[in-house]
Write a structure and sequence with these properties.
The protein is 68% helix and 0% strand. The chain contains ten helices and no strands. Helix 1 runs antiparallel to helix 2 and helix 5 runs antiparallel to helix 6. About 3% of the residues have low confidence.
């Protein structure tokens, strides 16, 4: 790529190299080519740059570099935001085992921007589980209540809610028993 002029041919060669490296599962090499294309101003227009960021994010996911993947999704969202990219960013932040507040921040963005998207329940369940694993049971309980309306089956949320909420003993003192007197 060093001796090729910075025109359409060089862009096509770069994109082809990215595609081939990705198909061959050479994710690191694919990302190196993309980074080099950005350095040489060969990444193209906004949509082509967004596609490059999404490819890099996908490569990082396969490499289990979730923080890097989340950062690339953020770059793509800066060009054009949509529900799929925000969802993937939130899932990568979750997978990176970072502070639950970061995942919750993305959840709140998702709920605000894409309130009709049912995946908000799944994201909220993941955030609740993150707080639960971090021993913040009060916050986990607070977050788990709402998704019960949306989907209580996925991730065993109903069971988690029961565990967090505790099992209060049932009191029958308010009941009166019928008598057999006539």
């Amino acid at each position: 790529m060093e001796t090729i002029p910075t025109k359409a041919f060089a862009q096509a060669m770069g994109r082809n190299a990215v595609y081939l490296y990705s198909r061959l599962s050479k994710r690191v090499e694919s990302n190196r080519v993309i980074n080099r294309m950005f350095q040489r101003v060969l990444a193209g227009d906004n949509e082509q740059q967004r596609a490059a960021y999404l490819q890099m994010a996908s490569n990082y996911e396969v490499l289990k570099q979730y923080t890097n993947a989340a950062n690339m999704y953020q770059q793509a969202r800066q060009i054009r935001d949509d529900a799929d990219v925000l969802y993937k960013q939130a899932m990568n932040v979750y997978s990176s085992k970072t502070n639950p507040a970061q995942t919750e921040s993305l959840l709140n963005q998702f709920k605000q921007k894409f309130s009709n998207d049912e995946r908000k329940w799944t994201l909220q369940q993941y955030v609740a589980v993150q707080y639960y694993n971090g021993m913040n049971h009060a916050k986990a309980l607070q977050l788990i209540r709402e998704p019960l309306q949306g989907d209580a089956v996925i991730h065993n949320v109903a069971s988690l809610f029961t565990n967090l909420n505790g099992l209060d003993p049932v009191s029958y003192t308010h009941l009166t028993l019928p008598t057999n007197r006539e």
